[in-house]
């Protein structure tokens, strides 16, 4: 594979060749990965047809500062490479496949007399993994079947030849009840054990036919040698295997090895069901949710999910059935849309699962919304508010011995944090550590601005503190002529007491109440936001004071650098050229000289 880098204006210079393209923004952050049969045509379409694109696509194109491409041999290779990159980096404009579960695997260990057990950790050097299993119950059913059919050991003993030769081991209960043949004391040869293990592996792969043929041959061989008791044991195992297969049989057993993938979608989300079928039996079924990031087609969504799921479940399917006709089929992928017969029935079954998953998600979302509504309605009742508090703002101060005094305001809409509405405040009119005066200043500034801009006031104002802070906030509202236009309360940390203006005694909400938990969450978020900002300001001020102590470096110069480089660390690491661009050659040299003199200080 060959990689190259281009500027957005050079998109017409891209080769007419299959490959993967990567878009980077001005901060060199990978924001989008795509595949193409023709890199030139696909990438150019983003820049030539913007009028027909949605808002998110246009926003992404404006962010692109560099394009990197990787040439591959075929469109299928491009699809697989795109999948790996998205899975690894998860760029912000690519389709988001929601799958945060950790699924179990069955591990066949790499040791003498290998064991089989379940695990959720993938460490390749430990052995061979089978799975993942979308259902723990399905995995346990397969493991139970293997242990009934074969005598696979469950102990953790080291069964290397020299350890067994030392004869320090004794057979355990598993041997006496017939679940193990005693390899620890030399009662079973490793070659015989590995023969059983090989058949167990076939079952784990879903190839039940090979195991069935093995038991049939063994049964016939024992019967011909008049070993009827052993022949009966083989027959019992064959019956057990056939019974297990019959339970999972969903279609004609002649349908040997295929995947089924169906998709249903609405404006923002797609729901996908994926099934693996071997010898007519469903060995895997999994549902996933995909969040659209741009204006992706159903074809793009389905291919994204299909490749990711086939990779996750280590699929070796010879054919894949889907419910959407691909406008641009990918050479190398054996995909079809069946119209009749057993394969059509598999599509219908998969679609039924996808639709049920969509309905289940919608129901869950509705329940979550009901919970949010219930909590804020409960808060209205507990605080005797005139309206449902679907817009809450909370204020908090932060300073250490009066240094770098700052404050914060957080906003919750419908019981959820509205991060874009959060605000930081530098305290401007108060000298020294005075929480009451600081609270009055920030409340005044916040609601004076909202009134000037004609924006709606909150349905509830929360002040982090007791009667003193609350009185200061009330005073601010009174001076603005806004007191009484929005309910206001104070919440004291020690006993979680709720104070109302003019009331000498606080009220207490039940400690287990969801409404109190919401207030605590809002208060804690305001505190966190204020503390984080305070640390940044202290860090800036500490270094800014050092800067202004240097002859030739004033407050304006220090502020310029802090605004441009964003952090103290980056200023210290900046080169002479970078500093010159921001503060000029003379001051940059002064700063570099100062840094050299103070190295290690």
UniProtKB/TrEMBL annotation:
The keyword NADP does not apply. Coiled coil: none annotated. Keywords: Cytoplasm, DNA damage, DNA excision, DNA repair, Excision nuclease, SOS response. It holds the Pfam family UvrC_RNaseH. Residues 16-95 form the GIY-YIG domain. Gene3D superfamilies: 5' to 3' exonuclease, C-terminal subdomain, GIY-YIG endonuclease, UvrC, RNAse H endonuclease domain. One of its GO terms (molecular function) is excinuclease ABC activity. Residues 264-477 form the UvrC family homology region profile domain. One of its GO terms (cellular component) is excinuclease repair complex. It is found in: Cytoplasm. SUPFAM superfamilies: C-terminal UvrC-binding domain of UvrB, GIY-YIG endonuclease, RuvA domain 2-like. The keyword Cytoplasm applies. One of its GO terms (biological process) is SOS response. The UvrABC repair system catalyzes the recognition and processing of DNA lesions. UvrC both incises the 5' and 3' sides of the lesion. The N-terminal half is responsible for the 3' incision and the C-terminal half is responsible for the 5' incision. NCBIfam families: uvrC. Belongs to the UvrC family. Interacts with UvrB in an incision complex. This is UvrABC system protein C.
